[in-house]
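// run 5 | inverse folding | seed 20
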């Protein structure tokens, strides 16, 4: 038991590993020692990323240009911009993404 916070040291270690992506070997750690962990206990490190907000500038710019052209009444030019935006979004995100769906919604 950790005397300063009243939490089990095993629980603290488990929470630390879950939050940071550190994986350690399964064994009975002696927390009474000054160094209960050593380098050999580290199994691997897994990146912990739940979401990243990435916006491809070229594709987003083409989409915005298409919106401007549509408001100006230049449908053919807007369709060219939208098809370019779809291609760039597909290269970055793959075929199923909300930005591609938005482009197709405007095209329809």
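// decoded
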């Amino acid at each position: 038991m950790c005397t300063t916070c009243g939490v089990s040291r095993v629980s603290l270690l488990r929470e630390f590993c879950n939050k940071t992506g550190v994986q350690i070997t399964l064994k009975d750690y002696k927390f009474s020692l000054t160094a209960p962990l050593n380098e050999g206990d580290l199994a691997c490190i897994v990146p912990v990323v739940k979401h990243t907000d990435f916006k491809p500038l070229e594709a987003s710019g083409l989409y915005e240009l298409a919106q401007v052209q549509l408001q100006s009444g230049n449908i053919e030019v807007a369709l060219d911009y939208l098809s370019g935006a779809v291609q760039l979004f597909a290269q970055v995100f793959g075929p199923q993404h909300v930005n591609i769906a938005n482009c197709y919604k405007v095209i329809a």
